[in-house]
């Protein structure tokens, strides 16, 4: 009876991990697009989208993941792990696609790929992923700091209009945008709680945490620091250009400058922290709200967010499928 209860609890937990992010993203998308004319979005997609610019922007989306895979291999080398570069890249492809199903599961899945194909310690590689995330966090905080200093009035207006500034209690309780932000924060809190519970479970496995720590400290042993810095900068430059060049796909955003793109890029980057599939919902909310501050009407901003997010998500799926197909083909000789 006890085993049955444990299985039921485990099944319920797995179900919630899968369903809650979808529900949260769906709720936010519903509020953002509840009065939206999807027929107009279809018209823009079919007849008013410059696909040459869109394809050009996707190139940078691919290279962002390739550079991430190459950088990851650098952090594994101090652990005497030398996986194939292509395996690291394909593992990253798969990780992004996996996170569309269960947010943040990609970090675990890419470590599993190297454990399977290159005999890399799962715990140690997970530690290097933690290190990577710390480096990326510092990088985006630096980018954010510079952007906020350069565009302070825009951020102040954004916080005011979305109800995240602290005005009257009545204003907060009647603002739809405030509730969207509130649900985003709740989603992030649930994500961190789930991660804490997961780490608590692994702490009971002898040696696991020590192996993770060894992976975290691998950054000290990286042999080519300038190359590591180059990869880090290349990753974030590619992410930015992946977003920025989509402005030229539409007549109503082509006039927006690089600073506007940088502001939206920062806002969108923080929005995808919310555990929904590829940031669906929070990302749309952030981009639409900020784009309106630069004079784009709500309908056009909604069209932009819907099309760009949809196509970029489709790219993630395609790369994930490629990674799944390529890995067994490029490792046949090892079997």
What's the number of extended β-strand segments? 0
Helix/sheet category: mainly alpha
Distance between the termini: 42 Å
Low-pLDDT sequence parts: 164-180, 198-208
Q: How are helices and strands ordered from N to C?
A: HHHHHHHHHHHHHH
Largest sheet: none
Counting DSSP H or I runs of 4 or more residues, the number of helices is 14
- β-sheet strand percentage: under 5%
Instruction: Calculate Rg over CA atoms.
Output: 21 Å
Proportion of helical residues: over 70%
Number of domains: 1
Question: Quick check: average pLDDT?
Answer: 79
> Based on CA inertia axes, which overall geometry fits?
globular
What does this structure look like?
It is a single chain. With 335 residues, this protein is an all-alpha fold. It has one domain (52-330). It has 14 helices and no strands. The chain has helices spanning 2-33, 38-47, 51-76, 85-101, 106-117, 122-150, 152-161, 169-173, 176-203, 208-216, 225-244, 258-271, 282-293, 298-330. The radius of gyration is 21 Å and the shape is globular. The protein starts with a helix and ends in a 5-residue tail after the last helix. 33% of the residues are buried. The chain crosses the membrane at residues 12-31, 51-70, 134-156, 176-195, 227-246, 252-273, 285-307, 313-330. It is found in: Cell membrane. Keywords: Cell membrane, Membrane, Transmembrane, Transmembrane helix.
